[in-house]
Design brief:
single chain; alpha+beta; five-stranded antiparallel β-sheet; 2 helices; 8 strands; 22% helix; 48% strand
């Protein structure tokens, strides 16, 4: 019963939290890329408006287009960020290459609000 007066406040806060979060590709180095930016790159590769630096790779029966879209140096380690597009399924994966490792960036719901 004591929560009833707070119901509208709780509903408002729940709405604000869900609105402020968005899905991003988060790499092991904590570098983040929005799904909008990656989707735009996918469309440019698919429509062939971006062709310089795009490579065609074949993995078993899957044909993928790869494109290195960013480079950064973090704590003295050089990183490259690669978008891989499965042309048939239209699925994308984002990879971080650096320090002798290649890691897939995870798609996560991320809030850009600083922790309280």
């Amino acid at each position: 019963m004591r929560l009833l007066p707070l119901a509208s406040f709780i509903a408002l806060m729940s709405h604000l939290i869900s609105v402020s979060a968005e899905y991003k590709y988060v790499c092991p180095s904590k570098t983040k890329f929005t799904t909008v930016d990656m989707g735009n790159l996918r469309e440019r590769i698919k429509n062939q408006s971006l062709h310089e630096g795009v490579y065609i790779e074949k993995f078993q029966d899957v044909i993928a287009y790869t494109y290195t879209f960013d480079r950064k140096t973090i704590d003295g380690v050089a990183y490259e960020y690669l978008l891989a597009l499965d042309y048939i399924a239209k699925m994308i994966s984002v990879y971080e290459i650096g320090g002798g490792l290649t890691s897939e960036c995870e798609l996560k719901s991320v809030s850009d609000e600083p922790p309280v």
